[in-house]
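== Folding task for one protein ==

=== Format: two labelled lines per protein ===

==== Paired sequence and C-alpha coordinates ====
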Amino acid sequence: MGTASYLLVGTKKAEQVSFGSTAHGAGRVSSRAEALRTLRGEQVVKDLKAKGIEIKGASWRGIAEEAPQMYKDIDEVIKVSDEVGLGRPVVRLVPLAVMKG
Protein backbone atom coordinates (compact mmCIF):
# COMPACT_ATOMS: atom_id res chain seq x y z
CA MET A 1 0.00 0.00 0.00
CA GLY A 2 1.54 3.25 -1.03
CA THR A 3 4.80 1.85 -2.32
CA ALA A 4 5.89 0.76 -5.76
CA SER A 5 5.65 -2.69 -7.29
CA TYR A 6 7.99 -4.11 -9.88
CA LEU A 7 7.71 -6.43 -12.82
CA LEU A 8 10.87 -8.53 -13.01
CA VAL A 9 12.18 -10.97 -15.57
CA GLY A 10 13.79 -14.16 -14.32
CA THR A 11 17.37 -15.14 -14.95
CA LYS A 12 19.29 -18.35 -15.60
CA LYS A 13 21.16 -17.74 -12.34
CA ALA A 14 17.87 -17.70 -10.44
CA GLU A 15 16.98 -21.06 -11.99
CA GLN A 16 20.30 -22.45 -10.75
CA VAL A 17 20.42 -21.03 -7.22
CA SER A 18 16.85 -20.25 -6.11
CA PHE A 19 14.52 -22.54 -8.09
CA GLY A 20 13.72 -19.57 -10.36
CA SER A 21 12.52 -17.45 -7.45
CA THR A 22 13.30 -14.02 -6.10
CA ALA A 23 11.76 -11.78 -3.45
CA HIS A 24 8.00 -11.52 -3.98
CA GLY A 25 7.61 -8.49 -1.74
CA ALA A 26 9.56 -6.11 0.42
CA GLY A 27 9.21 -7.96 3.71
CA ARG A 28 8.23 -6.45 7.03
CA VAL A 29 10.46 -4.32 9.23
CA SER A 30 7.91 -4.31 12.07
CA SER A 31 5.30 -6.76 13.27
CA ARG A 32 1.56 -6.29 12.88
CA ALA A 33 1.37 -5.88 16.67
CA GLU A 34 3.92 -3.04 16.49
CA ALA A 35 1.93 -1.41 13.71
CA LEU A 36 -1.20 -1.50 15.87
CA ARG A 37 0.68 -0.02 18.83
CA THR A 38 2.15 2.85 16.82
CA LEU A 39 -0.25 3.62 13.95
CA ARG A 40 -3.89 4.48 13.37
CA GLY A 41 -5.61 3.28 10.22
CA GLU A 42 -7.31 6.65 9.82
CA GLN A 43 -3.93 8.41 9.69
CA VAL A 44 -2.55 5.89 7.19
CA VAL A 45 -5.52 6.65 4.91
CA LYS A 46 -4.87 10.40 5.24
CA ASP A 47 -1.15 9.95 4.52
CA LEU A 48 -1.84 7.89 1.42
CA LYS A 49 -4.49 10.32 0.21
CA ALA A 50 -1.92 13.12 0.50
CA LYS A 51 0.21 11.10 -1.95
CA GLY A 52 -2.75 10.81 -4.34
CA ILE A 53 -3.49 7.17 -3.43
CA GLU A 54 -7.03 6.12 -2.62
CA ILE A 55 -7.52 3.23 -0.20
CA LYS A 56 -10.51 1.20 0.88
CA GLY A 57 -10.14 -1.34 3.65
CA ALA A 58 -12.38 -3.69 5.56
CA SER A 59 -11.12 -2.26 8.87
CA TRP A 60 -8.90 0.49 10.29
CA ARG A 61 -6.92 -2.24 12.01
CA GLY A 62 -6.17 -4.01 8.73
CA ILE A 63 -5.04 -0.76 7.15
CA ALA A 64 -2.73 0.02 10.08
CA GLU A 65 -1.23 -3.48 10.01
CA GLU A 66 -0.27 -3.13 6.35
CA ALA A 67 0.94 0.49 6.43
CA PRO A 68 3.79 1.20 4.00
CA GLN A 69 6.21 2.18 6.79
CA MET A 70 5.94 -1.35 8.23
CA TYR A 71 7.78 -2.72 5.18
CA LYS A 72 11.33 -2.58 3.84
CA ASP A 73 12.21 -0.18 1.03
CA ILE A 74 11.05 -2.04 -2.10
CA ASP A 75 13.47 -0.12 -4.31
CA GLU A 76 16.38 -1.41 -2.21
CA VAL A 77 15.01 -4.97 -2.26
CA ILE A 78 14.78 -4.89 -6.06
CA LYS A 79 18.24 -3.34 -6.35
CA VAL A 80 19.71 -6.25 -4.38
CA SER A 81 17.76 -8.83 -6.39
CA ASP A 82 19.14 -7.27 -9.57
CA GLU A 83 22.70 -7.03 -8.24
CA VAL A 84 22.83 -10.70 -7.23
CA GLY A 85 21.27 -11.76 -10.53
CA LEU A 86 17.97 -13.23 -9.33
CA GLY A 87 15.66 -10.89 -11.22
CA ARG A 88 16.01 -8.02 -13.65
CA PRO A 89 13.60 -5.08 -13.24
CA VAL A 90 11.46 -4.40 -16.30
CA VAL A 91 9.14 -1.70 -15.01
CA ARG A 92 8.37 0.10 -11.73
CA LEU A 93 4.65 0.56 -11.01
CA VAL A 94 3.11 3.01 -8.54
CA PRO A 95 -0.32 2.54 -6.97
CA LEU A 96 -3.33 4.69 -7.77
CA ALA A 97 -5.71 2.83 -5.48
CA VAL A 98 -5.55 0.05 -2.89
CA MET A 99 -8.22 -2.44 -1.80
CA LYS A 100 -7.44 -4.14 1.50
CA GLY A 101 -9.68 -7.06 2.44
About this structure: The chain is about 40% helix and 20% strand. The helical segments are 12-17, 32-38, 41-50, 60-65, 74-83.
